[in-house]
Amino acid sequence: MILLVVIASVLIAGVTIYQYSEQGRDYHENRVERKEEQVLQSIAYTIRETTYPVNTENLGLIFRDEIYKIADVQNVNFNIYDLEGSLIKSSRPSFEADSISNCLDAQILNHLRDSDDKRYVQEQRAAGDNYQATYTYINDTRFKPIGIVNLQYFEDNTFNNKELTEFLLRLGGVYLIMLFSAIFLAYFISKYITRSLQTISDKINRTNLTRRNEKIYIESPGQEIGKLVDSYNRMIDELEESAVKLAKSEREQAWREMAKQVAHEIKNPLTPLRLTVQNFERKFDPQDPEIQTKVKEFSKTLVQQIDTMSNIATAFSSFANMPAQQNETLNVVKIVKLALEIFTEDYIHFIADEEEIIAKLDRTQLIRVITNLVKNAIQAVPEVPSPRILVTVSSEGEQVKISVADNGVGISDGYRQKVFEPKFTTKSSGTGLGLGMVKNIVENYGGTINFTSQVGKGTVFTVRFPKQS
């Protein structure tokens, strides 16, 4: 028992360290690729809009001022070289210029020229930290290379290493407890095997189907007692085999449900994120005198949605409820209005009977309830000539009432009993966990959720929560 505990602790610690290392590596690779793609898109846009002839000799003029704007918007410094590897322009401040290579090594140019995707990534260490330097061709409007862009990305593993250390400390504490528990059990088992029929009786009385049961071992038992012990031990073996099969089945089912719920929750902030990007792209005007302010607002919205997805991933990674419920004293009117700000559809309207309705709820979970209901309403009105979604908040006795109404396709009678069932959906995509999760959140706070619907006319979902007493 002690040996198994030690071996298990070492194996789990090793797997954990490997997993954290792989997770960190994948994160940094994806992040540097995104940064590089964003910079290349900005460079391509500048080249399309410039009035200078697009060639290697004019790169310094084309990006004389634009390189600083791009670096500021993308929050990353980068350098531009000509095709021979000579530095043309850098976005770094002048006092950092000495740390920039004025000429690229021939090895880098050869790797870049010979690569299939015309991209070379160099991984190095500096001052004890890892960093990646990427090299990619800058193409003109006819996709002919006219220069090389170099982006340096320093990997910051502080947060990842802190989480790994904390997890290993907790894991070590748990296994120390298990080790001492194993020693303690081993001592008493050695006492039990010296007992006679009373020992067998005690063991049988303590047999429990909900936990692991010990076998009976008696040295030199009599014939009758030996048969009884053998029968009992065979029963324990069969019970453990059944328990293992059941546990395996339950774990597999739990992971399937977990994966579906993670996918659903990650997709929730992606929809408003996509809408925000599309809206910005449609209204973007480089000549607008307020373009810098709008870009900052756009970046702030993106960061907020990315933070939402990060919080979701963090909550699931710790095997906790997503997220853990917090009883906060909230102004429901204000929070509902805040939740609606991520939607850009002009047919979404909000009405509140009062400016302030106080209830004890979790801010994040209340926002999740509203966004799920509004998202479902948006999906119900794609082909309606004059779509309309109305979100209302009002007091109803000792309860706060939140309604989300749409004039969409409605819900047919055949689906009414299945709407809140997990994994049920009438859409071609999605996991069908949204309304089931909303129902769980509402009921965990002592609330109720119901709906009325007419096919072809629309649907109204109504949520009621107890107000603060």
Automatic annotation (TrEMBL):
Its EC number is 2.7.13.3. Keywords: ATP-binding, Kinase, Membrane, Nucleotide-binding, Phosphoprotein, Transferase, Transmembrane, Transmembrane helix, Two-component regulatory system. SUPFAM superfamilies: ATPase domain of HSP90 chaperone/DNA topoisomerase II/histidine kinase, Homodimeric domain of signal transducing histidine kinase. The chain crosses the membrane at residues 167-189. It is an enzyme of class 2 (transferase). One of its GO terms (molecular function) is ATP binding. Signal peptide: none annotated. Residues 191-244 form the HAMP domain. It is found in: Membrane. GO terms for cellular component: membrane. Residues 261-469 form the Histidine kinase domain. It catalyses: ATP + protein L-histidine = ADP + protein N-phospho-L-histidine. InterPro entries: HAMP_dom, HATPase_C_sf, HATPase_dom, His_kinase_dom, HisK_dim/P_dom, HisK_dim/P_sf, Sig_transdc_His_kin-like_C. CDD domains: HAMP, HisKA. It comes from the Bacteria. This is histidine kinase.
